[in-house]
Amino acid sequence: MNWQENPDLAGRRFGGAVVWANDEFFAERENLIKPDEPVFQPYTFGHKGQVYDGWETRRRRADGVDQAIVRLGMPGVIKGLVIDTAFFTGNYPPFASVEACGAEGYPSPDELTGWTTVLPKSPLEGDTRNLFDVTDTHRYTHVRLTIYPDGGVARLRVHGSPVADPNFLNFDHLDLAALANGAEIADCSNRFYSSPNNLIAPGPAAVMGEGWETSRRRDDGNDWVSLRLAAKGIIRLIELDTSHFKGNAPGWASVSCADASGEWKRLLTRERLQPDTRHLFRVTDEHEATQARLDVYPDGGMARLRLWGSLTEEGRNLLVTRWQDRLP
Q1: What is the pLDDT of residue 125?
Q2: Domain map (residue ranges) of the chain
Q3: Residue 225 host element (H or E)
Q4: In the chain, at which end, N or C, are there fewer CB atoms within 10 A of the end residue's CB?
């Protein structure tokens, strides 16, 4: 999987926050993790100058650097970084680096320690989505962006795989399809309007754009998405939420699951769906599963997919080991 298809662990939509910056004179630090793409209106001046949709510091007249700390909304393994300098042309930083740390509890910014460099000092281009691979395999909760020496960054995207802390999970009642619990999208037939990661994102969708929506089909097929569950478990309740999809919800849907052998079993036969509705379906047959697949007929949009169930003993051990092996 291309790491840009992984969720943005720092995104505000997932609970991320910019908890500190040493300077934000021209533009607020919170802009760094806004879910929307940056925008720009020329000749839009505030009392401090041109308004930018990003984080911008004042011009340095002495040695030093500027920094911002982001608490990840979903702690996990970082696969890649996007340092987006959109619309910053004569005022972007020429270099940047990123460090990360893993913290327990809820420390304040000045209590964070154990910083590890995941991106060494690297050159940036102005008005560009600067992409950087990350090879570190540890689980982190915070990142610190350093820009050299000053300037503006529109967005910071921290793409990766969430790793849940098992100390806060109920193994007997768990959303096996949740991004935050370690589930991930394996494949998808169509992502024309939005990412299938939205299907399994935390919390309810606030608007239609926070769900998964396909283009209109002009053939006899149907759209689908497959996923790897957080760990091996037994699905007992299926939630199909079409909230905000009114004239473009699927007409029907079905859900299947498979174990490591790859043998697929139907959990939910083709069921009729209503627009803008949260549907709940009980599963009567018990099947141990590591994968699941949602089919929608023929196309359309879905806000959320939840697969509630319990972990097997093997699944519990895997989830705990995954977390322990990724600790910094």
Answers
A1: 98
A2: 3-162, 166-315
A3: strand 223-241
A4: N
Which one-letter DSSP state was computed for residue 323? H
Cα pseudo-dihedral 261, 179, 273, 260, rounded to 10: 0
List the structure tokens of 81: 């970084």
Q: What are phi and psi of 15, to 5 degrees?
A: 105, 10
Q: Do domains 3-162 and 166-315 have the same CATH topology?
A: yes
**pLDDT given for residue 203 in this prediction:** 92
Q: For position 16, what pLDDT does the model report?
A: 96
d(CA 308, CA 52): 43
**Positions of the chain with pLDDT under 70:** 1, 43, 45-51
Please provide residue 266's backbone torsions phi and psi, each rounded to the nearest 5 degrees. Answer: -80, 125
**What letter represents residue 328's amino acid?**
P
pLDDT of residue 40: 76
| Whole-structure pTM value | 0.92
CB 40 within 8 A of CB 86: yes
Indicate the helix (H) or strand (E) that contains 52. Answer: none
Amino acid at 118: V
- Write out pLDDT tens, residues 103-144: 999 999 999 999 999 999 999 999 999 999 999 999 999 999
Chain CA centroid to CA 8, Å: 4
Q: Please answer whether residues 144 and 60 qualify as being in contact, where contact means their C-beta atoms are separated by less than 8 angstroms.
A: no
Taking the alpha carbons at both ends of the chain, their separation in whole angstroms is 24
CATH topology for the 3-162 domain: Jelly Rolls (2.60.120)
With tokens 């619990």, the residue in question is 181
- Report the alpha-carbon distance of residue 300 to residue 311 in Å, rounded: 31
Taking the C-alpha atoms of residue 182 and residue 136, their distance in angstroms, rounded to an integer, is 18
Domain 166-315 has CATH 3.90.1570.10: no
For residue 36, the number of C-alpha atoms closer than 13 Å in the C-beta half-sphere is: 8
- Rounded CA-CA distance 77/1 in Å is 14
Describe the chain by its helix, strand, coil percentages, rounded to 5: 10, 45, 45
Q: What's phi and psi for 139, nearest 5 deg?
A: -90, 125
Report DSSP state, residue 8: B
